[in-house]
Design brief:
The chain is mainly alpha-helical and about 170 residues long. Helix content is about 65%, strand content about 0%. Helix 1 packs parallel to helix 3. It starts with 9 loop residues before the first helix and ends in a 13-residue tail after the last helix.
Length: about 170
């Protein structure tokens, strides 16, 4: 019997690689580190395959990626974030304003705490449900909701947006 059981085929794992790469790129801000993170994630997933329980393969792989990223972050010196030259890799429609907006968004995302950025990317970019995000990050669903709210508010503030008028600022 192969390392990949009949419950999840090699094609299922391969189908998740683009999502893993996108999330890794958003986490690391660097293509090379993102590819390394995806490779480390897939290597760990295959070595721990006996621990996988049939269910949501994407959530399981994203959980592994999250844990690998956190472990690497803790083990390394503070991350150096990409400069403007790394942002040139983003595809644009050729509109200067879009390029500037994308650069501003990338910079704002990098200024969020890791906890806030992870939740925001898993919900907004990967379209995971709050319950799936809670499982990926190993936190209660209320923590996911709280972090997501704070991440959106912080991102809005970083991008120069006004705080919604119906919310009261509490210190």
């Amino acid at each position: 019997m192969s390392i990949v059981s009949s419950m999840a085929s090699k094609q299922d794992i391969v189908a998740e690689i683009p999502r893993l790469r996108r999330y890794a790129r958003a986490l690391t801000g660097d293509l090379a580190r993102a590819d390394d993170l995806v490779q480390d994630t897939l290597e760990r997933a295959l070595s721990k395959w006996s621990l996988w329980r049939p269910g949501n393969l994407r959530a399981w792989l994203l959980t592994i990626m999250h844990n690998v990223f956190v472990n690497q972050w803790r083990a390394a010196a503070p991350l150096d974030f990409p400069g403007d030259d790394a942002l040139a890799e983003f595809a644009t429609r050729g509109d200067q304003e879009d390029t500037l907006a994308l650069r501003d968004l990338d910079r704002a995302l990098q200024r969020l705490s890791d906890e806030h950025r992870e939740v925001l990317l898993l919900v907004g970019l990967e379209s995971l449900s709050y319950d799936e995000v809670a499982k990926v990050l190993g936190v209660p669903i209320g923590t996911v909701m709280s972090r997501l709210f704070r991440a959106r508010e912080r991102l809005r503030a970083l991008l120069g947006g006004a705080t919604p008028s119906h919310l009261k600022v509490v210190k």
